[in-house]
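It would be a great kindness if you could assist me with a short task in structural biology. I am sending you one protein, given as its amino acid sequence and as whole-number tokens for its backbone shapes. I would ask you to consider whether the tokens describe a fold that such a sequence might reasonably adopt. The full record is reproduced below for your convenience.
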Amino acid sequence: MRNLIKTLALACAVMLASCAGETQSTQKELAPVPHLEKRGDVTQLIVNGKPYLALAMELGNSSSSSQEYMKPYWPVLKESGINTVLAVITWEMIEPEEGKFDFTVVDEIIADARANDLKVALLWFGSWKNGYTSYTPKWVKKDTARFPLALTKEGKQLSILSTLGQNSWEADAKAYGATMKHIAEVDREEQTVIMMQINNEVGLHGNTRDYHPAAVEAFNGPVPQQLIDYLVANKDNLLPETLAAWEKQGCKTSGTWEQVFGKGDYTDEMFMAWNYGHYMNAIAAAGKEVHPIPTFVNAWIVQPEDKHPGNYPSGGPQAQNHDIWRAAAPCIDILSPDIYLDDFPSILQMYSRCGNPVFVPESRAGQGGAANAAYLIGQMGGIGYSPFGIEGSIALPSNETFRQFYKLAGSAADLILQAQAEGKITATWVKALNPTRLKDEVVMGDYKIVYELISSGQRKGGAPQRLGGTYAPDAQGYAIAIQLEDDTFLFLGSNIRVQFLPANGEGVIGLAKTTEGTFENGEWVEGRWLNGDQIQLRYDLLPAADEGFSGQGLDFDRAMPKFLKVELYKY
């Protein structure tokens, strides 16, 4: 089993290096398949030969199984500023009888997406969904002798396929490979399907590791040489969690899992991460052999109340397991977090370590979702953002600010992507509570940009001004900043105010010209010129001067986002 998986991984690496393995004549006729490409310091998604920003949403788990159910939603999604839909396809629908494939649901999703000028990332629900086994065909579910389930320490079966079942991963990989072959046949030129997700939030529930006899034997056997080789080759760049576990035992290069990493929950979790990674790499490799588009997996992230692996799915692609997954699954391109917790920036930073491309397949919509997406795009150089299950609520007033953000970001997508590649974009994320981040600052070129969340009141005492005061508990703001020229910046913001200081601390920064505007066909169309009350944030000029401020700034005074372009000068 291990040799076969290693062979598949090697084939995957060779295939990626040859850029899809196409003939020279085909490459001249067609754009390369969707792929990831390093541009500057960020990794971007390339579709039809151009960088692509995925302003996405994920459908409810069962929505895409019915074309009739989805019929009214496709045009609503398109109208909402969404350009990419994450849609589920399931092993049980693709292969209801062993060896007999039905790609009807795949064809329906592709046809409906094309009709509405949308791209698609398909989610393959095969062996596991949210850690459990529920989307496998009946012929897999009923034959636990051939497709073994994971066991507890007491020998009880869990409704979770064991990662050590060779028949299981071979059957899953066969079905997935057939699906990808079909997608290549019907979609190679159009490139409607731009990414694939393998399974969903995998990992073992309830236990730190699997106690199936095959798993026990593997755990008590030697750590795979492939993992040891990875640790040795990448020792200077390992994550702190991995390095600490390895160093604790003296960085051994042979031995059992407990001999190499010590005894404890984290060793159990690393063992499960290795086996989940290997299993899913075999599936990804089978797909990339016929259609090598980007492949990602998603993580059920650790929750604040979780005490040990098993409270969350043990061995999934959580941030602390990324080294193990990279070693085990070279055919998987992105290890993505599903983020529903409040401190989005901190979690995203954890999942972007060591160059992991930034993509969030599940999160929130609303004002908070817009702030999350802005931070991901502007600060983290992200590929895309996707709230979950909002096809029925995207048109509601509660999502109006989110729709508007997607529309504005989409209208400036080419500029945003260029700025990402050139390192001329930043973003901020501010919030009243959970966590409290009322202010932020970044440096761009010669300027320090100072942000403050919109308050619901004025400071006590002194002249009237629009900074400080009290904050509504649910207040949230954001801004993306793009440096267009040395002294000229474009902002896309909401519920936030912006002031400027000289980065070197010398002089005062004024606003030479401030305009509203929009993008039409990728070109800036200037609107109102703003001055006077529209840019005067402070009237207490002496205290402002003592703090280095001119008193002028940008006022994104509503939750509804907008563009502001500003030219600065120093005096």
In short: The first strand starts at residue 35 and ends at 39.
